[in-house]
Structures are given as C-alpha cells and as structure tokens.
Amino acid sequence: MTDVGQPDEVVVRALGVPVGIPATGDAARRLRHQWSRALTDEPPTTSIDVSEIASADDVAHDYAITTRVTMAALDATAGRRINLHAGAVADDEGRVLTVIGPSGSGKTTAIRLLASRLGYVSDETTSIDELLGVHAHAKPLSVITDPLVPLHKESLSPDELDLVRAPDQAWLHRIVLLHRGLDDDGLVPLDQAHAIAEIVEQTSSLVQLEHPILRLADTIDACGGVWSLKYVELEDWLDDLVGLLDLEGQPPPARLHHPGADAGEPAPGAWTRAAWRDAVEYDDELVLMVDDRVHVLAGLGVVVWLALADPATVDDLVAEAEALWGAHPEAAALVADALAVMAEAGMVRPPA
C-alpha cells in the first residue's frame, strides 16, 4: 500500500476515504462499473498495491481488489472510528440500521433484502465516527449468480442489483446482531454487557481508540440498545427489521467507567489487578478489556475485581464477599477458585 496516487487509477470513496486502484483498459472499465456508487474525482489519499494479485480470473481479481480497498480504508480510519464487520442501510432521514455478524451470518443477504426498501450504505463494513456519523462503503456486493455453483461469487454493483440509494448524510440509529440457525425467535433486546462483548468480536482496530469499551457503551446507549435477531429465513423478519427504526429504544442502564491503568509492581502478600485497557461496570456485570480481549464478569468476579482497586489478601476478599452476601462455609474456596480463573485469563496477579 502506498500513500500517493499513481497514474491510471480508479478512485473510490471507501468509508469516506478516497482510495486509488491502479487499473487500465478492461480492468478499469469493469471496476468503474462495479464501484459505480463510490466513484470520486477527489485525489486519492492512499492507493492499494495490486502487484501481488496474481489471479488471471477476473472474478477472483476483482474480489481481491475489494478486499484491499476495504483494508486501506480501515487502516486510514483506525484509532478514530468504530469500524464494525456489519452491513448498513439508511432511511430517507439518514437513520442507519446496522446488522452485525461474522462471515456466514447472512449480512450480504440481509442487506440485499433490506436495500430493496432502505438505502444501501454497505454490506460488510460500518464505520462510525464520534458523532455517530456513518461513512458509506458502497462497494460491490459478492453475490452467488449460479445456484449450481455456490462457491462462485461475482462482484456486482449496487446499481446492477437495483439497490435503493442512501442519503449523503447518515447516522447510526439501531444495532442488530445476526444469529442465523435453527431458532426463529426474532428480535430480542440484549443486555449491554453481553452485547458489547459480542460486538467487540466484530470490530477492527477497536483497541486503538481511547477508552474503547466506554466508546462502545456510549454508542449503544445513543442507539437505544442492541437487538439480537435469531432467524432461519431472513425474509420472515424483514418487516420487523425495517420497523425497528421507528420502535422506541431501550433506556440506557446506569453504569460506571473504570479507565485503563498500568499494573505497577506486584504487591508482597497481596493480589492485585493486572493492567487493563478499559472497563465499564453495570448493575451486576462488568465488561473488562485486557490487551485486546474482552471479559464479562458477574457475581464474585465483579466483587473480586472491584475489591482489588487496592492490593488485597484472600482473607480481605473473602471478607468483602461475605459483607455483601453473608457468611458461607466455602467462601474461601470460592474466592480462591475465582482468583485462579481470573489470573489464568490475565485479569489479576498473584502476590509477589
């Protein structure tokens, strides 16, 4: 990847970033057709390297181009935006519905169906700034064109698929986590702690943000919470997804922020917290990010971690737990087990 444009480039806006694609002749014409919604006359701020794309097959070549453009845009926005592995559509007012999920969860299918009624923003990447603005990634969609050859996907323009155009300005309004399987439970509100943990798994460069867990928590609160969609056939839930834009959001829960801190030196004779990047505490759960891993603590785990704001012995921690819940004959063993699990996960450190 380079930082300057080259001659004979196709320039597209990806996540608001002008990205240059070196191409000429038939390849350039094909790419301009596929990227019809994202073409720009702006000079590129970054260009992709196509020298390593060795495939002579146009389909594989164009898919590799799309992947590199997306990565270039993600690199350019890292540390400034929440970048989700998610599709997004927007209504005429610019209210964005984003559907989040891993590969195979049905994002592209969901967006193709939703974008017959709402504006196409992206089928795979939703980029959200600090004001909840969503920056479009109107890339070609990777679509199975022959049901008899399900592994063969072509890159098709959103214009070729007749997807609705999104407004120029849009902001995040509703968040849905996709769960395709055998259950058809539909849209169900999720608690914030587990929603954050699941969303973190579908982000890029989240750890580069200042206070990443707080940033996610603030975003979720501003969007009225998170919903899970458990479905078998997405067509059966299309009306519900569209209707979610007008459904009243969930009230934000009370929470406390515990900004990340260095661990310092281990304490003689006492347990301490390990260094953590960020944490948000809810009523009875705590979302803790250590390095790039996220843990959701509940019950005794929360009590132990909060009590270790200062170094503490096992006896101190047992006393803290019993002060909250009363005496228990196995309190010492339960606290020791919790400490062992948390230490193995890198959340706490044993005495020096």
UniProtKB/TrEMBL annotation:
InterPro entries: P-loop_NTPase. This is Uncharacterized protein. It comes from the Bacteria. It comes from Nocardioides oleivorans.
